[in-house]
Amino acid sequence: MIVRTPPPKKQRSDDGGSPATAGNPLVTYEDSPLQTCHDHSDQYLCTYQCRQMVKADVLDALSKAERQARESQTKLQTLNDKFTQADAERKQFRDKFLYSEQELAAAKGREKVLQEQLLVEITNSQDRFTKQLQSSHTLEVNLQNEMNLRKKAESSLATAEEKAKLFEEKLSQLSASVDREKKRLNSDIAHLGKEAKLSVSRIGADLERMQCRAQNAETESGLLRSQLEHLKHKFDECLQEKTELAMKLASFTSQASPSDNSVLVKHLQEELKRYEAEVREARKFKSQNFDAELLKEKLLEEKSRRERAESELSKLQQLQLSMDKLENELSSWKSLLNDIPGVACPDDIFMKFSTLQKEVLDSTVKIGEASTRSKQLEVALDATQLGRQNAETEAALAKEKSEALKSDVKRIEVMLSLVTEEREQLKAVLSEFRKSNSGGFMSGATDGALVQGLQSSLAKKENYLKDLENDLSQLKDVNNRQRNEIELLNEKLVNEARKIKSLERDSDRLRSEISLLESKLGHGDFSAANTKVLRMVNTLGVENEAKQTIEALQAELQKTRERLLAVEELKSQSGDPGKLVDSHITGKISQLKEQIATLEKREERYKTVFADRISVFRRACCELFGYKIVMDEHQRPNGIPITRFTLQSIYAQSDDEKLEFEYESGNTSILDNQYASQGEIAKQVEIFIRKFNSIPAFTANLTMESFNRRTLY
Amino acid sequence: MASKIAAAKDIITLHGSAAIVSEFFFYPEESFVKVKKYGLPMLLIEDESVKSFMSNLTSQISEWLEAGKLQRVVLVIMSKATGEVLERWNFRIETDKEVVEKGVSREKSDKEIMREIQAIMRQVASSITYLPCLDETCVFDVLAYTDADVAVPFTWIDSDPKLIANPQMVKLHAFDTKIHKVDTLVSYKNDEWDEEDA
């Protein structure tokens, strides 16, 4: 350090030093021979004196040099002090620099922390976003699953319904076939009963026939006996005659000639033979007669048999038809049995029925369950849709948030870049400082400027930090706001879910109401706005009168029949005179029948004419008096018949404007109904009917009022 | 033309069923003849008064059917003594307005229609098994539910619907012609014995 003194000092020493040593360089003793050898070769020529002089000069120069050395040492010391001072100052600056560097590092650390926080937040938000996306995906998957389930449930519902329908159809078919079977069996039973009756009646008829035959045989035997007696009597008479004749003959033989006698005898014998022939003929006739009667009876019997056979034939045809039908039914049943799985014999059908009914019940229960399930699914679907919407909105919010965060990050990055620039600037400043430091001492002014620059940069940093803190607080506020919004949305969601539930309840109620109304409609309810109920006027009532007359005539006919039967009995008792009465009665009956037929025809004609005329009359009445009149027959609870008239004005403004009158044995009275009890109408009724006892005046007045109402307003 | 034929078919069906119902309740067995219709043996009444009533009724109803104004035909069975309604045979008719207004014809085979009518006939005939016994003299009446704008003919009057309070209802098969769909439903008075049991 001492050897290599800086040149400016040399200059200074030159400036302030002695001029005698100006030309001689300062040489060390040891170096001197060399220097003399190289630079000053004429010193070898110096003498002793010269050497002494040189010594003295050297000594002077040494003392001077010593002094200078002392001076320079003092200077050095001062410089050293200055240097130490500068060093301390440098140290201070270094400390300050380090401090600022530390502060910078702290700022960086904070920045890093903030960045990390931001990154964490971003990653959190991204995670949340991904989670929400995942949840939305899962919700979508769930939704699809639910939709699939719903479709499946609907399809199963449809299949169950179809099954139920099929079962119902089967059931109805089976019930119909069972009914048919029952009916057929009933008809068979009736048929068998009829057959049994027929056979009983046939047997009875046979019995009666046999009895008749026996009676006939008895009467014939009686007749034959009487004939026999008659013939015996005749025979006795003949014998008596014969004896008489023999006596006569004897007397004649005594009196007359024997030739005459013999002639007479011959004559008598011939007569006798004729008689005998006659008797034989009579017997033959009798037997023939008997045979003829027998044949007639047989013929009748055969006829009846033939009729029976014919009827039996027709029955047989019917039976064959029914047999065919039964066979068809049986085959259809068999095919049905074959069609029904798990049924081997008809006894199984009842089991099958019960199982089918159970199945139907089960299926209806299943349908109910499926419908409830579908409803639940619908509700869940709605809820999931709502959740999905919420999730979507949340995702949108998160996206917005993430975008905001990204912009924040960008801002922060910009700030970071600014900070790094500043750092660079600071580094540059520091290097400058270092340079200046290394180059020598710095002026206080530049140091102050540097310090000020650093302070200002520090202040800027602090401002940045404050800004960042403000940003953070703002972000926190935004977060809080978003949270509040989410909570509000959740509350809204809950409210909406409640609303949905109440709406579902309402829809269920409405469905039940609809089903009730449908059942009412099916029963026969109607709305008066677009439907009218009509019935045909009393035509069967008119016909009832005709029926009554017909019934009376029929009763008369029955009576005459009874009389006829009585007369027939009388006839059978009293023989011939009955025939006359019989023919007379049959003639009368035919006459009466003809009369009945003509009367019926006339009645028909009267009816048609009456219907035509009455319609004309009604129309005319309506046109002339302005009232449509409907007549009804009623009976009071005590059985007294009343005729009720319902009048409707052609100027009536609604269907309810009807007047009702009761007509009973010449008295007509108005009935109180809704229309008649209206204020104005009631007043008119009071005045015209109750006070003046005039219905026509009342109806005319009402007509005028209705007409005026129709035309004037 | 097609609509006329179909309308006539409808009428025949209603007429037939009415006659069948009347068979069971009102008229003696002798006043019916056996006729084969829709492939089924049926009993049609021979009583002239009922026949003329039916012919008047069916002519009016076919007129309404052709115009598409008829909503429902109801056969009401009432007690003669008290006038209480015991049974209501509801034939609800849904008219295809398009067919009536534009004359478009639908494709449906007669065989299928016949089959459906047969099914109803069978059900009507078998309904005797569950309908309550009518052990008193009864009368029947026919109600027509028409559109409100229909002019009332002179042989017809407005009527109340003659409903049964708290009825039992049995839905029968429906059948469908090319123009009209007919739903059949029978409602009857609730059996008092059942109520007492319940």
TrEMBL record, chain A:
Name of the protein: Spindle assembly checkpoint component MAD1
Keyword Transcription regulation assigned:
no
Keyword entries, A-Z: Cell cycle, Cell division, Coiled coil, Mitosis, Nucleus
SUPFAM superfamilies in alphabetical order? Mitotic arrest deficient-like 1, Mad1
Q: Which residues form the signal peptide?
A: none
Which PANTHER family does this UniProt record tie to the protein?
MITOTIC SPINDLE ASSEMBLY CHECKPOINT PROTEIN MAD1, MITOTIC SPINDLE ASSEMBLY CHECKPOINT PROTEIN MAD1 MITOTIC ARREST DEFICIENT-LIKE PROTEIN 1
| Pfam families according to UniProt | MAD
Gene3D superfamilies in alphabetical order? 1.20.5.170, 3.30.457.60, 6.10.250.90
Which family does this protein fall into?
A: Belongs to the MAD1 family.
Q: Species name for this entry?
A: Arabis nemorensis
| Cellular-component GO terms for this entry | kinetochore; mitotic spindle; nuclear envelope
Q: Which domain of life is it from?
A: Eukaryota
Lineage runs: Eukaryota, Viridiplantae, Streptophyta, Embryophyta, Tracheophyta
TrEMBL record, chain B:
- Mention any one GO cellular component term assigned to this protein in its UniProt record: kinetochore
Q: Where in the cell is it found?
A: Nucleus
> Which InterPro entries does the record cross-reference, listed alphabetically?
HORMA_dom, HORMA_dom_sf, Mad2-like
User: What is a biological process (GO) this protein takes part in?
Assistant: mitotic spindle assembly checkpoint signaling
Question: What keywords does the record list, in alphabetical order?
Answer: Cell cycle, Cell division, Mitosis, Nucleus
Please give the chief subcellular localization of this protein.
nucleus
Q: Where is the HORMA domain?
A: 3-186
**Entry-linked Pfam families:** HORMA
- Annotated PANTHER family: MITOTIC SPINDLE ASSEMBLY CHECKPOINT PROTEIN MAD2, MITOTIC SPINDLE ASSEMBLY CHECKPOINT PROTEIN MAD2A
The record's similarity note reads:
Belongs to the MAD2 family.
What function does the entry list? Required for the execution of the mitotic checkpoint which monitors the process of kinetochore-spindle attachment and delays the onset of anaphase when this process is not complete. It inhibits the activity of the anaphase promoting complex by sequestering CDC20 until all chromosomes are aligned at the metaphase plate.
Any idea what this protein is called? Mitotic spindle checkpoint protein MAD2
Q: What is the lineage of its organism?
A: Eukaryota, Viridiplantae, Streptophyta, Embryophyta, Tracheophyta
